[in-house]
């Protein structure tokens, strides 16, 4: 490993540690004040959502947060109101809930792979802004991240998963198709961002071509968004590369 890379890694670890100290302060404030925080992580496959969540929760009190990563809906859930299975995972008072994907599966993944009908997709796109407004009006602090990645880097990360036995579990049959369907996914993604972005429920785009920078930027945004006790100044540096 070259000197520059060692230096960059050391800088990253130092910045991450400082931000994680602030996350502990944030969590304590959320718990002490019975606040409810919901953070949604969306993005293409291999965009680094799970890795970012791992750094968020690394030093947090496990009793005061949850990570929500739902499996595909059961037969019973398929017959329910679409949002129903997600509602039971909304944060309780004093809790932060991290959603590794969310109801936005119906905005992109489901229509692209024919897991829902055109009518179901269109109905969802009309309903989701109202649902999110209701959640926010009820006092939940909602943050939505879109982790974006280039087609080239996505393919590179898929190859890394194939060659690393410890990452084989991340592979799915869908992974083989998303590169082929890149343009179609892009169309649905653009429609989602256009129709579900608002002043009260905005999408925050995170450049995840650099995983480490994406982790730092997403943590910084959350810290900057919430006025917790003992807060230090957190500089935002979206899009910077090492």
- Count of the separate structural domains: 1
CATH topology: Rossmann fold
Helical content band:
40-55%
Order of helices and strands: HEHEHHEHHEHHHEH
Give the N-terminus to C-terminus distance in angstroms.
15 Å
Q: In CATH, what is the homologous superfamily?
A: P-loop containing nucleotide triphosphate hydrolases
Second CATH tier, the architecture: 3-Layer(aba) Sandwich
Number of separate helices: 10
Can you count the beta strands?
5
Sequence stretches where pLDDT stays below 50 over 5 or more residues? 238-242
Strand order of the largest sheet: 2-3-1-4-5
| Secondary-structure class | alpha/beta
What does the model show?
There is one protein chain. The protein has 242 residues and is α/β, with parallel strands linked by helices. The protein has a single domain (34-225), classed as Rossmann fold (3-Layer(aba) Sandwich). The chain is built from 10 helices and 5 strands. A 5-stranded parallel beta sheet has the order 2-3-1-4-5, with helices on both faces. Helix 1 (3-32) runs parallel beside helix 10. The radius of gyration is 18 Å and the shape is globular. The two termini are 15 Å apart. Residues 238-242 have low confidence and may be disordered.
What's the gist of this structure?
With 242 residues, the chain is an alpha/beta fold. The chain has helices at residues 3-32, 49-57, 75-78, 84-87, 109-112, 118-137, 151-163, 175-178, 182-195, 211-225, and strands at 36-43, 65-68, 95-100, 140-148, 203-207. It has a five-stranded parallel sheet, with helices on both faces.
């Amino acid at each position: 490993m070259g000197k520059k890379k060692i230096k960059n890694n050391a800088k990253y670890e130092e910045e991450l540690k400082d931000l994680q100290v602030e996350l502990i302060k944030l969590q304590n404030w959320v718990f002490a004040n019975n606040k409810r925080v919901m953070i949604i992580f969306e993005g293409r496959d291999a965009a680094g959502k799970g890795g970012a969540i791992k750094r968020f929760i690394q030093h947090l009190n496990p009793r005061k947060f949850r990570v929500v990563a739902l499996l595909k809906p059961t037969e019973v859930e398929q017959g329910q109101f679409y949002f129903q299975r997600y509602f039971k995972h909304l944060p309780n008072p004093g809790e932060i809930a991290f959603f590794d994907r969310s109801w936005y599966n119906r905005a992109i993944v489901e229509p692209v792979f024919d897991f829902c009908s055109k009518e179901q997709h269109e109905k969802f796109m009309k309903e989701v802004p109202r649902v999110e407004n209701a959640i926010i009006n009820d006092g939940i602090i909602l943050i939505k991240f879109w982790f974006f990645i280039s087609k080239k880097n996505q393919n590179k990360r898929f190859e890394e998963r194939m060659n690393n036995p410890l990452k084989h579990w991340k592979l799915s049959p869908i992974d083989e198709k998303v590169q082929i369907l890149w343009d179609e996914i892009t169309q649905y993604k653009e429609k989602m961002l256009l129709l579900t972005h608002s002043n009260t429920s905005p999408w925050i785009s995170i450049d995840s071509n650099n995983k480490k920078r994406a982790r730092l930027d997403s943590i910084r945004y959350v810290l900057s968004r919430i006025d917790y006790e003992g807060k230090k100044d957190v500089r935002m540096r979206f899009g910077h590369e090492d």
